[in-house]
Design goal:
A 4-stranded mixed beta sheet has the order 3-2-1-7, with helices on both faces. The chain has a 4-stranded antiparallel beta sheet with strand order 8-11-9-10. About 4% of the residues have low confidence. The protein has 13 helices and 18 strands. 33% of the residues lie in helices and 24% in strands. Among the domains are: 127 residues, Rossmann fold (3-Layer(aba) Sandwich); 69 residues, ATP-grasp fold, A domain (Dna Ligase, domain 1, 2-Layer Sandwich), CATH 3.30.1490. The termini are far apart. α1 crosses α13. With 383 residues, it is α+β, with helices and mostly antiparallel strands.
Length: 383
């Protein structure tokens, strides 16, 4: 029986979302396959690593006594010599527990952004989800737009960006760039997910406060022009070479309830009718004319390929239903809850979903192993 380590938590503003994804959408269905030994690896908000069966219980996190529990737990050490192993002092005789595959369930900084994937690549262990480059680019909204738009076929709504340093030291230039856009505007931290730190503003008097909020979370700030006749859609995709598309999903929100953290996660059960998913209530499939629906699918697929995504990702788009335009918004390289509610509409259960993702990870790892990474020379003998 193979051992799968599910890594979650982390030093991220999306720490709590990661915990829910890991426990409900990854660990539970993995154990239901009865094919794997599933190990919970929790990264605390201070960056410490822990491994315990109790970390699979949501009640521990809800009890208010998590810190007390962790204070008694030994911290896990990593063994990345020829594989990925976990050493828990005082347990297993101090021996390394070999891990056959890693299922990262990390959202945001230090995990979903490619940092964890780099560690796993160095350890030479298969892992679920996008690789280092795709994860890093996808989690930088500015860089993702530049890469996707470079092909010339996919567009974003008009936008600009700058660093927090520019906001302080080149305020006039920043304002001049923003004033070329038309209100309403969306101000976002470039690297965060779960819509944390995003502001929707209707007039210039609201701008500076929105910029300061974004700069509180990130050193890179994105400002986007709103879309008229807007329908927001999102498209989950999975696979490596042969891709599987879920259905286009349309969040059921009012114009004043733009996709901020509260709308996504805190009000889901209180508003509207439809399918209850990771972002509250939504409609699956999205209510779009047939041709526009197909156009959005093509854009989503084009984005997935342009960024080199693998395993699973979710592409968010903005649709101007009157003009018939589909704009690329952003990519989530590890969708919250794996968007299992959407895949279920395709007849793919939670258990089948995680199993497929494990298979994709093993497939990519096997393919990567076919390429030579060592090159022998006599270069050192010259010195």
């Amino acid at each position: 029986m193979k051992t799968i380590a599910v890594i979650f938590g982390g030093c991220s503003t999306e720490h709590d979302v990661s915990v829910i994804t890991a426990l409900a959408s990854v660990i539970k269905p993995l154990e239901m396959t009865k094919r794997y030994k599933v190990v919970a690896v929790y990264i605390a908000k201070d960056g410490s690593w822990y491994c315990s069966e109790r970390l699979k219980d949501i009640k521990l996190y809800q009890s208010g006594r998590l810190d007390e529990f962790l204070a008694r737990e030994p911290k896990v050490k990593l063994d990345i010599n020829g594989g990925f192993g976990l050493i828990r002092p005082g347990k297993l005789g101090g021996k390394s527990l070999h891990v056959d595959l890693v299922f990262p369930a990390m959202h945001g900084t230090h995990g979903e952004d490619g940092e964890l994937m780099g560690l796993l690549e160095m350890a030479n262990v298969p892992y679920v989800g996008c690789g280092v480059a795709a994860s890093a680019v996808a989690m930088d909204k500015v860089l993702a737009k530049k890469v996707v738009e470079a092909g010339g076929k996919i567009k974003s709504t008009p936008w600009t960006w700058f660093y927090d340093y520019d906001l302080t030291h080149s305020t006039k230039n920043v304002m001049a760039a923003i004033n070329k856009l038309e209100y309403p505007l969306f101000v976002k931290p470039a690297h965060l997910g779960s819509s944390i730190g995003i502001s929707r503003i209707e007039k210039e008097s609201e701008l500076m406060n929105a910029l300061e909020v974004a700069a509180h979370y990130d050193n890179k700030i994105l400002v986007e022009q709103g879309v008229e006749n807007l329908v927001e859609v999102t498209l989950p995709i999975m696979g490596n070479d042969e891709l599987v598309l879920a259905q286009l999903e349309q969040p059921l929100t009012k114009p004043e309830d733009f996709f901020d953290f509260d709308t996504k996660y805190m009000q889901g059960g209180k508003k509207g009718k439809g399918t209850k998913g990771a972002q509250g209530y939504s409609q699956i499939p999205a209510d779009l004319p047939k041709e526009l629906y197909k156009k959005a699918q093509d854009v989503g697929l084009g984005v997935y390929l342009a960024l080199g995504c693998s395993g699973i990702a979710r592409v968010d788009m903005l649709v101007d239903t009157k003009a018939g335009n589909v704009y690329f918004n952003e990519v989530n390289p590890f969708p919250g809850g794996l968007y299992a509610h959407n895949w279920a509409k395709q007849g793919i259960s939670n258990v089948e979903l995680v199993q497929k993702l494990v298979e994709f990870a093993e497939e990519r790892f096997a393919k990567r192993g076919k390429y030579e990474t060592v090159f022998s020379t006599n270069y050192l003998k010259q010195f």
